[in-house]
Design a protein that fits this description.
About 95% of the residues lie in helices and about 0% in strands. The chain is mainly α and about 110 residues long. The longest helix has about 100 residues. GO terms for molecular function: ATP hydrolysis activity; proton-transporting ATPase activity, rotational mechanism.
């Protein structure tokens, strides 16, 4: 009886050790999967951050470029308009002076 009892205890100890190995293997597999998931999440976050930064830099460049282009365009348009005003003023200045002189020198009753 004692030998079957010792044998039963040995079987229980062996089963307990086997269960402990299974639990440890499952725990290690879980930890490895969690580490892998964390690494994947960090990689995806880094890629997303890089993508967002690239989009931001692109928009910033486009906006800054547009601003510079707008300034140049406005300067050119302003220069053209000033040129037109000067040429128009030069062209009609003699007529305006003559009209003013007539008005000033003409005596009305």
């Amino acid at each position: 009886m004692e030998s079957s009892r010792g044998n039963g205890i040995q079987l229980l100890l062996a089963a307990e050790q086997e269960a402990q190995h299974i639990v440890n293997a499952a725990r290690n597999a879980k930890l490895a999967r969690l580490k892998q998931a964390k690494d994947e999440a960090e990689r995806e976050a880094t890629e997303f951050r890089a993508q967002m930064e690239a989009q931001y830099q692109k928009k910033l460049t486009e906006t800054s470029g547009d601003s510079g282009a707008n300034v140049k365009r406005l300067e050119q348009e302003t220069g053209v308009k000033i040129g037109h005003l000067k040429s128009d003023g030069s062209r009609i200045s003699h007529d305006v002076i003559d009209m003013l002189l007539r008005q000033v020198t003409t005596v009305k009753n």
